[in-house]
Model the fold of this input.
Amino acid sequence: MSGLYITGLAALCIPHPRRTKPFWHSVQEPDSTWTVAGRNFPDTSWHFGQRELVDVSDYFSLAGIKTDLTQCASYERAVFDLLYYHIEQNSRMVPNVQPTDINDVVDFERIVSWILDLIRSGQLKQGEAMRRWLTIEEPWVDV
Done:
């Protein structure tokens, strides 16, 4: 594990520099609902290392949020982490978000390329189901 970082739905609610955030929800003080890789969510640093992490300390400072967490998954890595946790690790649907909720802000093509690389290297068993979730037409995939 290379350090804690905010990911999943929580990361999709945090503004990143020069990007529009995918979800309209606001982020409150840190609590048990934040998805934090290495704490209550899987850490995908085995694939990404420190890539696709965004420093959100300026936003937290401006919002008056006091936390030691300063790294947040990029929107694309946050979606990959969601798919990895729910589909790959737990063989279930991704709750509380549909592809059409976020596809105008999140670059699905990048995520698909990561999934295809991991399928080719034999590191994903449910890679095709993860990829199908991103096709938008069929978000309720069977896993």
